[in-house]
Amino acid sequence: MDSELSPWRTRMYAELNAPLATVVGAKTAKEFAALRLHSLGDLLRHIPRRYLSGTELTDLGSLVQGEHVAVIARVAHLQRFEGGSQAGRAPRPGRLEATLTDGQGRLAVTFFGKAHLLGWWERQLGEGVAGLFVGKVGSFRDNLQMSHPEFVMLDANGQIVGSSSQDKARMASLTRAGLVGLYPATGRLPTWTVAECARLACQSVAGAEDPWPAWVRDRAGVDELTTAFAAVHHPVSLAEAERGAQRLRFDEALATQLTMAYRRSSAAAQAATPRPRVADGLLDAFDRQLPFRLTTGQVRVSSAIFDDLARSRPMQRLLQGEVGSGKTVVALRAMLAVADSGGQAALLAPTEVLATQHYQTIRSLLGELGGGRMLGAPEVATDVVLLTGSMGATARRAALLRAASGEAGIVIGTHALLADRVQFADLGLVVIDEQHRFGVEQRAALAEKAMRRPHVLVLTATPIPRSVAMTIFGDLEVATLAEIPAGRQSVSTVVVDAVGRPAWVERAWQRVIEEVSAGRQVFIVCSRIGGGPAKADQGKGVVELAAELSAGPLAHLNVGVLHGQLPSDTKDAVMSSFAAGELDVLVATTVIEVGVDVPNATMMVVWDADKFGISQLHQLRGRIGRGSHPGVCLLITHGDAADPARQRLEAVAATTNGFELAELDLEQRREGDVLGASQSGTRSSLRLLRVLEHADIIARAREIAEECVRLDPGCTTPGFADAVRQTEMLADGDLLDSN
Ligand code: ADP
Ligand code: MG
C-alpha cells in the first residue's frame, strides 16, 4: 500500500479498503462481487452464518428442498450399482448411494461415475463414519436427496480425516477444535472457498493497528479488531466467535455514531440568529384563540423548541408523533414565535396536495391573524403565502414578492421553495414535513437561502424506535408526541377475506353506502393507478375500481378519483370538493397517505391491502376518525390466509399502537429498506448491526462517540477520521440521510 497515495490515515482502513482482487485474485473477486463484497473489509465482515460443531449431528428433519446446506451426518448404509456397457452405446455410469442418518431421519446421497471413482468414494465414506456434506438439497421420488455433495469425513473429535491432501488443505482452514463456519455462499463460491479467502484476508490485516484508541475498546468491552476477525472466521469456541461478532457490530455502530456526533458538533458551531419568545405577539394571540387546550405533550415539546430557537446555534430537531397527535399545531407555534421575533418561517411538504392542505389548515387555524396587515386586521397579524410549482405566473410572482420583502411571515410550499428564484428577507426557521421524502441536499439548499443557518424542525408521523432514530436521524434531537389529543376517535379495523368470504366484499360496499347515508365520507385506497393494460397478477387499480363501483354498487353516490398522474389543478379541485363534502367517496392511491385532513371522512376501504406495508396501512387509516365520529377501516385482501402478508394485516387490525407496528414492520424488513435508501446495488455501512436488535450497542456507541468528540473536537485521531470518512463514503449521501 502506497501511503503517499492512500486517502486513509490508518493502515487498517487502507487494508480494509483494498480491492479483494489484490488478495484473492481477479477471478474469485468477481464471484465475490456478485455477493456485493468488493473490499477486504467487506469480506472480513462477511461472517459465517452459523458454526457447526463436528461432533454434533445435524437434524435432518429440518432440511428444506432447494437449499444449499451443510450437514453433519453418519453414513448408515452404502450401496453400489454398477454401470453397464452395451454394444453400440455409450457406457452407462454406475452410481454409489449412501444413506445418511442423524439417528432418526434419513437423507439419500448419490454419486455417479466410473467404477474407479465409485470405489474411491466408497473407501472415503465408510459405513458408520460421520462426515460433513455440503450441497443442494433436491428430491428423488418424494425423498430428500443430495447429488454429489462435497464432503469430508470426521473423526470422533470432529476433526477431518483421510481425504485427499488438496481437500484437506481446503477444509483444514475451516476448523479449529471441531468448529466449522458456514458462510452465506453461492454455488460458485462454496463455503470453503469463502473460508480460505477469509483466512488470506485475516493474514493481510494482521499487524495493522487497531483504529480505536484503547480507552474506546475498554469502555465498549470489546476485543482488538484483528483478534475479532480471527475469532469470527476461525473460532475455537462459539463464545469466542460471538465476542468477535460483538466487536464488529460495535464498530459499525461507533462509525455511524461518530459521524453523527461530528455532524452535530459542526452544526452546533454554526451561527444562527436567536429567536427568543416575544410576549403579547402573534403567538400569544394565537394561543388565546385556539379552540382547544394543548396536550401536556404539546406544551412540553413546544417549550423545548422555544428554548432551541432562543439559542445562537441552529436548532436541529425531529418531532415525531402519531398521525393526529397534533404536530401541525406545535410546528405552527414555532413558526409564529419566529415571526414574532421578526423572522420568517418556511414549511415544506412533500406534495402539492399536502402543501395546499397545510396552507388551508394554517389559514383557518390563524383566522384573521394570518390574513396579512390589512386595514382592520389585528396589529400582530402576519401574511401566510402558498408557493407551488403549478401556480399561475401572476399568483406566483406575488407570492415570491411577499417572501422576498419579508411581508410573509409564513411561506408554505413544496420543493418549488428550493428553486433559485425564491428569496427570503430573513429566513429563521424551516419546518420539513415528512422527512423521509426530503434529501439532505434539499435541506442544505434551503439553508443556503438564509444569511445564517436557519433553525430546522423536521416532522415525521412514522414512529421511529429510538435506536433507529439515533442511527438515521442521529444529527437531530428527537422529540416525541406520545399522546393523541382528547376527543380523537378510535378506528376499528377489520380484515376482509375476498377469496374465502366474497359476500363480505359486497357487505363492505353496503357499509360504504350506509356511512354516506349517515352523512359521512369514505376513502377507498388502491395500491396502483391502473388504467393501462393490466398484468395478470396486479389486481385492480384506482381507475378500474372507481369505474366498476360507479357503475355498480356505488352507482348512486358521488365518486371522485385522485392519483398522482392527474394534473395538479385537477388534483386540487378533487381534494377541495372532497373536503367540501361534495364528493361522498374518494377512490385514491396513497397520495392521501400523509396529512390529508377531512374530519367528516369516517371510513376507509383498502383494496388489496396486502400490497401495503404495516406502517403504510397504519398511516393510511390515520386519515379517518379525525372528527367527532369513530372510524372504520376495512382491509380487503385476495391473499392466502397463510401468507405472511395476511399476518401483517391481522397485526394492523389487532392494534392501533404505531410504535408497536413500526417495530413489527422493522423486524420484517431488511435494514436497507428501513433506512429508507434503496440498498440494491449500493453498499451499506451496516452489515452486521441490526438496528432494533442491537439497540443497546447503538446507545453505548453514541455515548462513546460523544466522548470522542469531546476529547478530540477536531477529529484528528486517525481512526476517527477514517471511520467518519468511510461512513460518509458508504452512505453515499443517502443512507444516513434516509433518502
Ligand atoms: P398531526 O399533524 O400530528 O397528524 P394535526 O396537528 O394535524 O396532527 O392534528 C390533528 C387534529 O387534531 C387537527 O384537526 C388538530 O386541529 C387537532 N388538534 C391538535 N391538537 C389538539 C388538541 N390539543 N386538542 C384537540 N384537538 C387537537
Ligand atoms: Mg399533520
Description:
Among the domains are: 61-158, Nucleic acid-binding proteins (OB fold (Dihydrolipoamide Acetyltransferase, E2P)), CATH 2.40.50; 213-343 and 426-486 and 694-739, 3-Layer(aba) Sandwich (Rossmann fold); 491-655, Rossmann fold (3-Layer(aba) Sandwich), CATH 3.40.50. It has 26 helices and 23 strands. Mean pLDDT is 84; it is low at 670-683 and 733-739. Helix content is 39%, strand content 18%. Helix 9 (225-233) crosses helix 10. It has a seven-stranded parallel sheet, with helices on both faces. The chain has a six-stranded parallel sheet with strand order 18-23-22-19-21-20, with helices on both faces. By secondary structure, it is of the alpha/beta class. Adenosine-5'-diphosphate is lined by residues 292-295, 298, 321, 323-329, 461, 485, 487, 597, 626. Adenosine-5'-diphosphate (ADP) binds next to helix 13.
